[in-house]
Amino acid sequence: MSSSTAPKKIAIVGSGNWGSAIAIHIGEKVRKLKGQYDEKILMWCREETLDDGSKLTQVINKQHENVKYLPHEKIPDNVIAEPDLCESVKDADVLIFVIPHQFVKKTCDQLKNKIKSTAFALTLIKGFYVDEQTNDLMLVSQLIKNTLNIPCVCLMGANIAHEVAEKIFCEATVGSRDEKHSEIVRQLIDTPEFRLRFYPDVEIIEMLGALKNVIAVCAGFADGLKAGFNTRAAVLRLGFREMVNFCRLLEKESTPELYLESCGIADLIASALGGRNYNGAKKLAETNKSLKEIEKEDLNGQSLQGPGTAKEVYRFLEAKNLLDKFPMFRDAYLICEQKLEPKKLLENLHNHPEFQQK
Ligand SMILES: NC(=O)C1=CN([C@@H]2O[C@H](COP(=O)(O)OP(=O)(O)OC[C@H]3O[C@@H](n4cnc5c(N)ncnc54)[C@H](O)[C@@H]3O)[C@@H](O)[C@H]2O)C=CC1
Ligand SMILES: O=C(CO)COP(=O)(O)O
Question: N or C: which end of the chain has fewer CB within 10 A?
Answer without folding.
Answer: C
